[in-house]
Amino acid sequence: MGASGQMRQVLSAPPKSRPPLCAGRRGKHPMQLFHNASMRRLFAALCLGSALAAPAFATPPVAAPARPVPAIPATPLRTPQPGQVQPLAPGTRPAPKIPTLTLTPAIPQVHQVTYLSNGFIEVAHAVITVTPQERPNLRPLVAQVAAAVLAARPTLSEVDLSVYDRGSYAGFGGPLPLLTASVPRERLGAFLAWTTQRTPFDRVWVNPGNLPVYLQPDRVRETVPVPVAVSSQETALERQARKQGGLLGGLLYRSKFRYVPLAALTFDDAPHPMYEPLLLDMLRRSGVKATFFVIGRNAAAYPYFIRDMTQQGHEVGNHTYHHVRLPPLPLNEAVNEMRWASDIVQKLTGKPVRYFRPPGGEYTPQTLQAARSLGLNTVFWTDDPGDFQNPGDAVLESRLHRNLRPGGVVLLHDNAPEMLNVLQGFLRVARQEGYALTTVGGLPK
């Protein structure tokens, strides 16, 4: 995430921390619920016409014993490292409340179901928590939850599932899930077939249990975009790259040409299981390609969204593995953060990673050099409307339009609710004003 309208160089200890902002939650949202006589009729109705229809179940889908998902020990929480607890940005407001869905009858393992719309489709995200004793039955459980969520709200196009260990669950930024899945409504039958081990399903991930040790991610918030004084210790190369634009010494602030009505559209922190399908759908409808700076651990847990990005022609960049600020870390740990993220992205896309954005835009000369040694060009931005400050739709839209400039780099976040509200209008206005939005790789350098 960004820190201000321009990146800032950090050459000293991090500021005194305050508790991170926690997003608010909305009360129960009015909804239409189905009250079926039995789960057999629920599955029969949902799977009717599916090319890979699931067999009828006499009870919630536990008809056949499922192969246990590999046992994964509870992830130990590592002592927070320097830079992991962030002060709130001035002016940050509570996040808009996200509507929630109530299942009837309730499924005890379902922690929460939220849903959102981009104006075209609706997507839900179900968080499921389980005990060690419940892990051998994850497949029938996720089958039951997916079917129940789609039945409870007929307007949903997709439900995404994240199954966590109940003892270590700490929200989206906490230890990774045990299992994730993305289930479009039209593919429910195929997903149910996967839960009985009859056929493969390409939109599911099972935690292998051998991932890097968990680090709590930084919760960096933007400030209102204003110029930030450049440190006197900024190198001559950095000053030149900032002034002239283009790619210079592995640094990119903006395009080399200020008079071509072309700007890069970028999103940090991807992928998120509820927001990503909504954002990708909107970009597809608009015919716009963007660069996603992804967090490595998120890419590992939701690999199908990274494949979706690549298949739709988007560019995937590096935003570290755990989303931690690099300057306070020992250099070898900072290098690992960049290398791990690049490794998982290249594995999923089949392409070398070319672009890197440090969380908060914070760096040192040493981390910039480390990025170059890994073949990464460090990318900053010119247009940071502060979508993670939740300034309100009107303010966010005004900032986007006011700061859009030829050769610029627009910074947004894939998991900011207000971004979804204003993005379509911004894309339309940019087109009307003659701007073409593209990837970072598409900018003249």
UniProtKB/TrEMBL annotation:
GO molecular function, one term: hydrolase activity, acting on carbon-nitrogen (but not peptide) bonds
Organism superkingdom: Bacteria
A Gene Ontology biological process term: carbohydrate metabolic process
Alphabetically ordered keywords of this record: Hydrolase, Metal-binding
Region Disordered, annotated ranges: 1-26
One Pfam family, short name: Polysacc_deac_1
Residues of the NodB homology domain: 261-438
InterPro entries: Glyco_hydro/deAcase_b/a-brl, NODB_dom, Polysacc_deacetylase_ArnD
Key word Metal-binding present: yes
CDD domains assigned to the protein according to its UniProt record, in alphabetical order: CE4_NodB_like_3
Protein name per UniProt: Oligosaccharide deacetylase, putative
